[in-house]
Each structure stands twice: as C-alpha cells, then as structure tokens.
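Supplementary Methods S3. Input chains for the assembly prediction are listed below.
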Amino acid sequence: MLLEKFKDEVEEILSRYPVKRSALLPLLNLAQREEGFVSEPAMRDIAKVLELTPPQVFETVTFYTMFNLKPIGKFHLQVCKSLMCALVRSDDVVTWISKKLNIVPGQTTADNNFTLSVVECLGSCGTGPMMQVNDDYYEQLTEEKVVRVLDDLARDGNCHLKSGPFMFPTTSGKSR
Amino acid sequence: MAQYETILLKNMEQPGYSGSLEDYERAGGYQALRKVLKDMQPDQVIEEVKKSSLRGRGGAGFPTGVKWGFIPKDHPGPKYLCCNADESEPGTFKDRQLMERDPHQMLEGMAITCFAIGAETSYVYIRGEFRLGAKILEKAVQEAKAAGYLGENVLGTGRTINIFVHAGAGAYICGEETALLESLEGKRGQPRFKPPFPATHGLYQKPTVVNNVETMANIPHIMNKGGEWFAGIGSPPKSCGTRIFCLSGHVNRPGNYEVPMGMPFREFIYDVGGGMRSDKPLKAFIPGGASAPFLTPEHLDVKMDFEAVAMAGSMLGSGGVTVMEEGTSMVWAALRLMEFFYHESCGKCTPCREGSSWLTQILQRIWNKQGRQGDLDLLDELCKNIAGRTICAFGEAEVGPIQSTLKYFRHEYEELIREAEATRPQSKEIPVFTH
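Predicted structure tokens for the full assembly:
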C-alpha cells in the first residue's frame, strides 16, 4: 500500500490536526507526488486511514483542479491564460509549445514526457507570461526561453531557468 | 523615481538578505515577540492593533484589531488562527514575495496574533501551486521552533504556539475565509453561510481568526513601533500604513511596490511603475485585482485608499493594479476575466454557478461576432440577478468587469454586435418544413 511506504510522513501529517479529515488534502498531495496522479487504490487507502467513505474522498478530489485523476506526462506544462498574462501574450506561449511538441492543450506527447494544460492565474502576474512545470515556475517567457526549457527538461530532467524565491523588481531595478 | 520608506519589504531589499532566521534576527527580528510575551497582556496587543487602524490586506479591508476583538475571551476550548496564503486573485502576487523572501516576518506576526487571541494552533493555508513558498515556510517554522520562538514553551513562558503549513490544491474560492476553513477541514472548498461568523464558529466550529499574509507581516512592526506610529503613515484615519501594490499589464516596470496608502494611481503607474511600455496611452486599469471593476484615465488622480477607490465605483481589493493600453479590446478583457470566474465558481449558489456560465457564453458569442440585438440588456439583467444573491462576495466580483466595461466602453460591445448583425445571413422567409 502506498501509505505504508510513507508511514512516518503520514503519522506526522495526521499529528497536525485534531480532526482526521483535515489530513485529506495533504495525503492526496502526497499520493499524487508519488504516482503522478491520484489513483483509485490511493483514494481507497486514504479513505481507510482517515475513516472516511471512498465517496467522501472522491467528492473532495474532484473539487480541486490540481489533482489529476488520470496519469499524465512526466512534465506537466501549465501555462497561465488569465487576463494579466494574456495582456503580455500568454497565448503565444501555448502556440510556441504546441509548435515545438506537436500537442494541443489537454494532450500528452507520444513519449509520455510532456502534458500541456492551460490554467488560470498562478500568482505571477508581474512576470508574465509564465508557466508552471511540476513544482517549478518559469517566468518572463520568450520563445527562445520556452524552447530551451523544453530541451533541457527532455535531456536532463531539469532546467536552471526556473524561478528562485520571488523578487521583482530586484533592488538594482533590473530584471533578473 | 522617488524613494519611499518601506516597512515590509525593507529586509529583503538589503543586498544578500536570505530570509534565514539568522538574517531576520540580525535585522531585529523576533524582538516584537519577545516584548509582547514579556511585557504585554493579550488585550493590550489587541488595543495596540486597533490603535494602528490596520485593515486586512487580503481584499475586504476589515479592521484587524476589531476582528481579533470578536474572539470570545471566555471560550473554554481551543481557538485557531489561519493565515490566508491562498493568494489567487488575478493581478496579485505580493504574498508570494513575502513568504519566499522573508518568511519569519509573517511567522512572528502569526505568533503574536496567537498570543493576542489565545490560540495555540495555527495554520498557514498556502495555495497548492506555491510549492517553493511552502518549502521555504516549512523550513522557517523548523528554524523558529529550534530557536524557541515556536512550539511548546515559547521563549520560556510555558505558552504553546504551533504553526503548520497546509497546502491547498488549486481552487480560487479557498481564498474566501469560510471556504478556506471548509478546505482546511478536508472538504470541498465551498463558502459557508454567515452568520455565524468564524470569530465564534470557525475551524472545527471553534473561534477562529483568518488573516492575510501581508496583514500578519505588519504585526511585528506595529508592536515594535506602536499603533500610533502606524496610524500616522499613509492616508489616515481609515487607510493607514503602507501597502504592497502589485503592478502588472502594459507598463514599463511591473512588479511589487510598497508605497504609503493614499498615493494617486497616476503617481503609482507613471512614476513608480515607469509608465506605459509603449507610446500607446492608458485605456483602462483594474485597481484591486480581478474582482474590482475597471477604471478609466479620468480616475488616475483617485487616491489608492479604501474609501477613495470605493467612491470612484471600484475597490482597492487585494492591491493588484493591472494596466491596459489603448488598442486592448475591453470585450476581450472582460471575457478573459469571465472565463476565470466561470472556471472558479464553486457551484454552491445557483445564480453564480449558472450565471457565470451564461455570462461567459454571451461574451464569447459577442466577441466571436455572433452577438445578437438585446444581448447587452441580457448581460445587464443577468449581472443584476447574480450580484448580492450569493453566499459569498464571488457574485459581486464576477459581474464587476462586465458591468464596468459596459458602463465605460459600451460602444465596443455595440460595435461587435453591429458587425455580427451586418454579416449574418438574412433570410426573407421563414422556411416551412413539410414531410
């Protein structure tokens, strides 16, 4: 079982709350980090640990957009399309990615490496256009930068262009 | 550009400041917590915050000290503090910087708040996408615990103050305080009907205070320098202190700027933010995040305080200022925001759930030049039937962009509908189908 593998972490999460059900989102996050999506066996596991019925878990999972109910690619490219990013041409970012990877939003590449999604505001409006790839933010995107990020990720599984702790504008007044 | 004395961003503006406990202590950090625990009673802390006139920085602008004062003092069971770090109002990105660059500042504010309201346990509800922020905060909590600022027996006083970081999972509505509580309880994040208010029936139906990250970050400074000092900054008597405004859109220098409240938008956009990015003039701006109705160039001299922006027909909200240049279609802008609200409506109240879908569809057809005569009246009517008829403020928020663009830029809608009418195939006879 998934949760047995993370026994200590699960115990620690449960200890934070006086009511077990509060641990639901943290445990779902844990399950998704491990498997890449929230599987039915994981949901049943979690239900058992929290003394909930499986439907109680499922009804909660479906409310939150970050939970994937199906497996997705190794890297989840999420491009912000809300107004603030759209003003600085976030729609172009989607086009650049589509052109490079030959997929449209909602699709995964044949090698299972990339899934492309278009999402709502990720709280990075001053540094748009931007995208989130798994845990990391990539900001102030240009076509060149997007291509480099995708190449680096495909080759090394990592890319140093990701954002560090947010500071914008920098004290020197220059962009980072 | 003129320089303004910053309070919240001051530490992180120093070169090399890492946000570690060591750096924070060197900058005078945790002195306020020491002072409060040693010399003050909880009531005195609340009084001092009331004196400061600090108002919530999340969006609603409710006076923080008054909110704390609502917590029943004689309540026998546990009380809770929740720090709202679900920053997801489009146009707003200040809390992210506060958490990632100077996490101890808000943690100290939370510890002082816990003392003031008598809470032993508090949670930071951080939006799920902020993985970096959550990691930084978790590390900061461990540092503070090891140094005796958090945990059991804080600074030797025998008092327990625990802070836990709780990540959400991608739902805008969880920034609404009662939806946040529902989500923290492991349920669908749907707002609760008020009353009862969280002050008496909050997390697990216990007395609870929910405060924004920036609000929390202000507390240590108010404790150090006094409520009167804070009340003298900005635009007294009602909009005191500085505020971190987030500038985005078609400007030269987008980003977070901490300025005294009450600065005119013109100065903020043109002096602080470096003005428009091209030679196209400003066409419209959003003064306080996606929920705030649009304003136009004639409002540029409005002061950035709660009352002045409300008088101008919008709201200061979360402090997200988005600027749009000439040439930006206002119908398109309203549609983009409406798509956001349609996606994020939690589905609890019928007017919002169904209305957001209808509004989106009507805007889409107008934008795609398929609009019909009467569509604008339909939009007006729908908006009136949503605002004020929902449990939370989402209803008012979603109609703001449409109502304001209809008010100031109605001709753009009419133009698109006229084009649609002109290009629509006109059939003279109604076809009769016979078998």
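Residues 2-63 of chain A form a domain with the Arc Repressor Mutant, subunit A fold (CATH 1.10.10.1590). Chain A touches chain B through 49 residues (CB under 8 Å).
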